[in-house]
Amino acid sequence: MYRRLPLLVLALVSLYACSKSPPDSLPAAAPAASADGPPRYDAELVYVDFTARDPRALEKYRQGPFIVTGRLQKVHIVGAGELQLDLKAADPAHPVRVWLKSDPACDGGRDCPEQVALDTLPRGFKVYLECERATLQDGMPTVADCVLTGASGRAS
């Protein structure tokens, strides 16, 4: 009996150590979240989430800021300081609409530098936008209160 005691103690110590160790699988982070910035979502993912209308999937778009990436489909200059972009989605006939924050420095007499720069970009150019919220407006996924954070990539 005493020869089995060290084996029993070893088994108990192992069980105790296993119960105190961290779990094997950590909770999943937000899609494309990075440690040094807000979560990143591709425009095609935004489109899929909004067409599925899953409340759990849509909740993440109420918690800005987040980065939206996508291929430029069309630029609309709506008014002085107001710019709207259409980003390519899974269905090209139904793009993801993006509203950029209006620039108070712009007036009706001149184009803003950001508008001029975006007008020169070719269709399909990948853009990166930091946005505050996304909703479904008139059946179209719409991302609002965005600023252009960079544009990196080539048209394809």
Automatic annotation (TrEMBL):
- Species lineage: Bacteria, Pseudomonadati, Pseudomonadota, Betaproteobacteria, Burkholderiales
Instruction: Please state the span of the N-terminal signal peptide per the UniProt entry.
Output: 1-19
- Its protein name is Lipoprotein
Which domain of life does this protein belong to? Bacteria
PROSITE patterns linked to this entry: PROKAR_LIPOPROTEIN
Source organism of this protein record: Pigmentiphaga kullae
Name the keywords, alphabetized. Answer: Signal
